């Protein structure tokens, strides 16, 4: 500013003045400002970058969900609830295995209406392994033959009675999860397990007399297990608390569940053939989030139904419940 005053004074006094350099500098500053304004306006007009797209479903490893089921009053209700959770998960194949001599219309119809990719399997639990009326569930572990039947199918030993009958082709990338029909599952759980390389693990809520059971993790590795009952088991985990990479299962053709395993050791009877505890892969934020709950539907009380049946006025048996 002083230079402009000096120039004005020089002009008014008739002295020669070098006015061009400060004028040129001022013009350059204005040009740079205009240029920056134009750049900012162009950035504002530019559309925002597209969000990162998730992988196409065909690029995702398939999740093979193995569910044993057996006939009882709440069977359809349990399977409808589970099927509708599974329908939210992309790239999923449901292996539903009935404990029966032959496929039942109820399960066949439910699978056909589910909209899911499925394989329907059937195998009857041997009489010696079946629970008798009034026996607690721990006397004989339920679902052993059914889970092993699903493993046989995955290994190409056939047996499908409905749905997809061909097993996964060699080289298929996938993961196998054993999902009982009475548990409650978060959709997030399936994405946690999808990229399992060996055996992945996470906590399970409302099990073992605790708020949750699950692996204890330090530095990204499993170092122990939070459990109250028989903590020295090789793998003190619930059936809902782990998933196995399909290639690993196929590479260990003799790995299966042992129906004669001691109480609480059924999971260990399979996992002991597949992985060392130190190599388990913690999921669900290093096993700090519960995404599956060991819920059980209360057995319905049918006292009024029995009375009406005795009177010849029972509910119409043709209506499927």
Automatic annotation (TrEMBL):
Residue positions binding Mn(2+): 182
Coarse class of the protein's main subcellular location: Golgi
Enzyme Commission no: 2.4.1.135
Transmembrane helix listed as a keyword: yes
Active site per database record: 267
Alphabetically ordered keywords of this record: Disulfide bond, Glycoprotein, Golgi apparatus, Manganese, Membrane, Metal-binding, Signal-anchor, Transferase, Transmembrane, Transmembrane helix
Protein name per the record: Galactosylgalactosylxylosylprotein 3-beta-glucuronosyltransferase
Record organism: Colobus angolensis palliatus
């Amino acid at each position: 500013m002083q230079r402009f005053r000096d120039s004005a004074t020089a002009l008014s006094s008739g002295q020669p003045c070098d006015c061009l350099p400060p004028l040129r500098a001022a013009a350059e500053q204005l040009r740079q400002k205009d240029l920056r304004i134009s750049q900012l306006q162009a950035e504002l007009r530019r559309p925002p970058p597209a969000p990162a797209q998730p992988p196409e479903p065909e690029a995702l490893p398939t999740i093979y969900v193995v569910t044993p089921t057996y006939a009882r009053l709440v069977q359809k209700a349990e399977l409808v609830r589970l099927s509708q959770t599974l329908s939210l998960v992309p790239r999923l194949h449901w292996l539903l295995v009935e404990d029966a001599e032959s496929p039942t219309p109820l399960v066949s119809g439910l699978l056909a209406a589910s909209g899911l990719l499925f394989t329907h399997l059937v195998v009857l639990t041997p009489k010696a392994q079946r629970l008798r009326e009034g026996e607690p569930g721990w006397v004989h572990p339920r679902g052993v033959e059914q889970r092993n039947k699903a493993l046989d199918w995955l290994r190409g030993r056939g047996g499908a009675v409905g749905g997809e009958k061909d097993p996964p082709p060699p080289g298929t990338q996938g993961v196998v999860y054993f999902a009982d029909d009475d548990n409650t599952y978060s959709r997030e759980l399936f994405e946690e397990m999808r990229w399992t390389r060996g055996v992945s693990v996470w906590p399970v809520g409302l099990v073992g007399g605790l708020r949750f059971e699950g692996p204890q993790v330090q530095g990204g590795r499993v170092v122990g297990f939070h459990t109250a009952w028989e903590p020295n088991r090789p793998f003190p985990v619930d059936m809902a608390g782990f998933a196995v990479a399909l290639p690993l299962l196929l590479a260990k053709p003799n790995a299966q569940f042992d129906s004669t395993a001691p109480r609480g050791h059924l999971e260990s009877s399979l996992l002991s053939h597949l992985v060392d505890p130190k190599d388990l892969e913690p999921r669900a934020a290093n096993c700090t989030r519960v995404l599956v709950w060991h819920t059980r539907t209360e057995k319905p009380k049918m006292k009024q139904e029995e009375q009406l049946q005795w009177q010849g006025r029972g509910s119409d048996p043709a209506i499927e419940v």
